[in-house]
Automatic annotation (TrEMBL):
The keyword tRNA-binding does not apply. The chain crosses the membrane at residues 9-27, 39-57, 69-91, 162-180, 221-238, 244-273, 280-302, 314-344. It comes from Fictibacillus arsenicus. The lineage of its organism: Bacteria, Bacillati, Bacillota, Bacilli, Bacillales. Belongs to the autoinducer-2 exporter (AI-2E) (TC 2.A.86) family. This is AI-2E family transporter. It is found in: Membrane. Keywords: Membrane, Transmembrane, Transmembrane helix. GO terms for biological process: transmembrane transport. Pfam families: AI-2E_transport.
């Protein structure tokens, strides 16, 4: 290795150490800037949601516009269909959602009693096992009780936060309309405020991110909505309580690759356990059928599930996202990792163009 190459590696290691040091300092200074970040979160949340919805709807607007429909009419049509359908679903479904949530909260003591009896039977059934094994099972039982309580507490807290942000979220439809209507102007503004030497590279970067991520996100959301609706109907038909709540959980967790179906099935099976073993097998059968439909029909044709990331890295990103932000972190893990991957590839290609590798060395 030449002296120049050694200096390059020393420089890279020093830069990496400096990055870790900056991250460490940011973690330590979190109490100082956390209130400021909370305030910014409240301000930027509607803009982020509006930008996401605009990103999802814009291809539909362009498709309708290419069919000969005037652009403003295309925007108004897609806008009214999306928010009209969403509003109708909320107006019709929200009362049932509230009723089922109220029933769940009222039945929490009864559910806790059923689980204690079930866990007690498991505890007695394992009493003949060696003490170390029996002790481990008791520890897992206690952890399961604590986890169930934490999940319910977090769910209620999340609902309260949604109510707190209600008036902020009302702004989103207005922002979406302006974003869709002025989409080309926004693109031009971003183009002109970008330094001239980064414009073409930035354009290619955004195109590659959209190619890698756009279809995946739209497809995942569409498939999640279909599976959630199908789960609601199937659970309602077989007589499971809280079908709307459970369907929403299944729809949201289905966005998570690999672990999503398991996370979505856990609350369904836990509630089925308080009814009967017959209901457990019925719900397991429903979940398996839904996952078969998703994995063999909806996934390949609608999503493609192809973000060109090795499964090992997907699992790593999901575990990291779970540690950092729980279920929301797992939902965002693959899209964020995909964007980082595209950025790294662009930086590498840009450096290679500027500093070609001499193969004769």
């Amino acid at each position: 290795m030449t002296k120049e190459n050694r200096m390059k590696w020393i420089y890279r290691l020093a830069l990496l150490l400096l990055l870790f040091l900056c991250l460490f300092l940011l973690m330590k200074l979190n109490p100082l800037y956390h209130p400021f970040l909370k305030a910014l979160q409240g301000v930027f949340l509607p803009f982020f949601l509006a930008a996401l919805i605009t990103y999802l709807l814009h291809p539909l607007v362009e498709y309708v516009h290419e069919k000969g429909v005037p652009r403003f009419v295309a925007i108004l049509t897609i806008y009214l269909l999306f928010f009209g359908g969403l509003g109708y679903t909320i107006v019709k479904g929200f009362p049932y959602f509230v009723v089922q949530l109220k029933q769940l909260l009222e039945n929490v003591p009864a559910l806790a009693k059923d689980y204690k009896e079930l866990l007690s039977r498991v505890d007695k059934g394992t009493s003949a096992l060696p003490y170390s094994v029996h002790s481990k099972i008791e520890q897992y039982i206690v952890k399961m009780e604590i986890s169930a309580q934490n999940i319910l507490t977090n769910a209620i807290f999340s609902l309260r936060k949604i109510v707190d942000y209600f008036f902020v979220i009302i702004v989103v439809p207005f922002l979406v309309f302006y974003f869709l209507n002025d989409f080309e102007k926004i693109k031009k503004a971003v183009w002109y405020i970008t330094p001239r030497r980064f414009r073409h590279e930035g354009k290619h970067l955004i195109e590659d991110v959209d190619k890698s991520l756009g279809g995946y996100i739209r497809g995942q959301l569409f498939v999640g909505a279909i599976l959630g609706a199908a789960a609601m109907i199937a659970l309602w038909i077989v007589g499971m309580p809280y079908p709307i709540l459970l369907g929403i959980v299944i729809a949201v967790t289905d966005i998570i690759p690999y672990f999503g179906p398991i996370l979505g099935a856990i609350p369904v099976i836990l509630i089925a356990l308080t009814i009967s073993w017959k209901m457990v097998w019925i719900t397991v059968g429903i979940m398996l059928v839904l996952q078969f439909i998703e994995g063999n029909i909806l996934g390949p044709f609608i999503v493609g599930r192809n973000v060109h990331i090795h499964p090992v890295f997907i699992i790593f990103s999901l575990l990291l996202g779970s540690e950092l932000a729980g279920v929301p972190g797992m939902i965002l893990a693959v899209p964020v990792f995909s964007v980082i991957k595209v950025i790294v590839i662009h930086i590498r290609e840009h450096r290679l163009r500027q500093h070609p590798i001499d193969k004769s060395e």
